[in-house]
Design a protein that fits this description.
395 residues, mainly alpha, Rossmann fold, Tyrosyl-Transfer RNA Synthetase, 3 domains, three-stranded parallel β-sheet, 6% strand, globular
Length: 395
């Protein structure tokens, strides 16, 4: 099976990247035909203003990939922007993709609101209009076939319009000051590239006629859209693209040191470039069960980030069971639990960090690896484009 996936260059990789994505890639490259690319064009969909660090971040990602075990002898490793055929297919697929598909994409609005940190605002608006929406539906002189579905449709539309009205000055302006987001920031997020990035993702996949794409559940709508675009192209111009399948891999989620999703922007990440002293400081500052204030207090390991790390990174399963039991019974303090965890985290990071230092010294060879991969990718992509051009009569 031909597999493809990509990653945006946002800087050095952390434990969340490895356990959430890279580990499954390494396993796939051992048994499948794998293509992995640095999605530098995708990085511009949300960070088009800040490109000063882009090349540096690309280099960091190259070093991390090779250090973690992605092998150019087993996988095609390349840069998206070095295979211009992606852009050509993106343009042509954009011509046949209905705008409504992009606007209905459930992650489009979510990503926008996440970037602007206004998710709570939409929730507030939805809560304020639910009773009015229900009353309105009950007053309609028409039969509503799906009350709940129609209610959600109206709620989504009205809440989105209320957010837009706020930024256009139609609702009390004091609210804008509270959320600290300007009208300019709101509309500068609404770029053509941001709306259309699922089409670029589809081009990334279809140009290699990939059969499988390893993704998390949050990316399933994008794979379904890729399948829809492939079906539409095949219907219009003849059978060309396979419909790729989403490969939902069993990947544990590593929380950040504060219990939230691990992210560089949250300042809660443990990086593969961290020295042992930095790792120790981060582990000892990790959030634990807020109700376990003293060692003798019964703990709740199921909600504790430290215990999550033990389950994933501690190879001694008997010790993990003992930690779980002792925590619940109030026999194990949080500091001691963190001390038990520390050597296991270091044992994962230290060898990667040392390989990283060695690999980073020869950046020329690294670039050669990705250029060779880009060359292989271009050859396959061009064969696909020759077929696409012929079928669309634009040779």
């Amino acid at each position: 099976m031909r597999i493809i996936s990509g990653m945006r260059p946002t800087g050095k990789l952390h434990l969340g990247h490895y356990y959430g994505v890279i580990k499954s890639w390494i396993e796939l490259q051992e048994k499948e035909e794998t293509f992995f690319f640095i999605a530098d064009w995708h990085a511009l969909t949300t960070s088009y203003k800040d490109v000063n660090e882009l090349e540096k971040n690309i280099k960091e990602l190259m070093v991390d990939w090779l250090s973690l075990g992605l092998d150019p002898k087993k996988s095609v490793l390349f840069r998206q922007s070095h295979v211009k055929q992606h852009a050509e297919l993106y343009l042509l697929l954009g011509m046949i993709t209905p705008k409504s598909w992009l606007e209905w994409n459930p992650t489009y609005k979510d990503m926008k609101y996440n970037l602007l940190k206004i998710q709570d605002l939409e929730i507030q608006f939805r809560g304020g209009i639910r009773d009015a929406v229900r009353q309105f539906i009950n007053m309609l002189p028409y039969k509503v076939e799906d009350f709940e579905g129609f209610e959600e449709h109206l709620m989504d539309s009205l809440a989105e319009n209320l957010v837009e009205a706020l930024f256009n000055g139609l609702i009390e302006k004091e609210m804008l000051q509270k959320i600290n987001v300007s009208k300019r920031e709101f509309y500068e997020t609404d770029t053509y590239g941001f709306l259309g990035y699922p089409v670029l993702q589809s081009a990334d996949i279809l140009i290699y006629k990939a059969e499988g794409v390893p993704v998390g559940e949050d990316q399933l709508p994008h794979i379904e859209m890729t399948r829809e675009i492939a079906r539409r192209f095949n219907h219009l111009y003849g059978n060309t693209f396979p419909e790729p399948k989403a490969l939902l891999t069993e990947t544990p989620k590593i929380p950040g040191t504060d219990g939230r999703k691990m992210s560089k922007s949250y300042g809660n990440a443990i990086f593969f470039s961290d020295e042992n002293k930095e790792i120790e400081e981060k582990i000892l500052k990790m959030f634990t069960d807020p109700q376990k204030l003293r060692k003798n207090d019964p703990g709740r390991p199921d909600i504790c980030a430290v215990f999550t790390y033990h389950k994933i990174m501690n190879p001694n399963k008997d010790e993990v069971e003992e930690i779980y039991r002792d925590c619940k019974e109030g026999k194990l303090g949080c500091v001691e639990c963190k001390r038990k965890l520390l050597p296991h985290v270091i044992s994962v990071i230290e060898p990667v960090r040392e390989r990283r230092k060695t690999i980073a010294k020869d950046i020329g060879t690294i670039h050669d690896v990705f250029e060779e991969g880009s060359k292989k990718a271009r050859e396959i992509a061009e064969r696909t484009m020759e077929e696409v051009r012929e079928k669309m009569h634009i040779k």
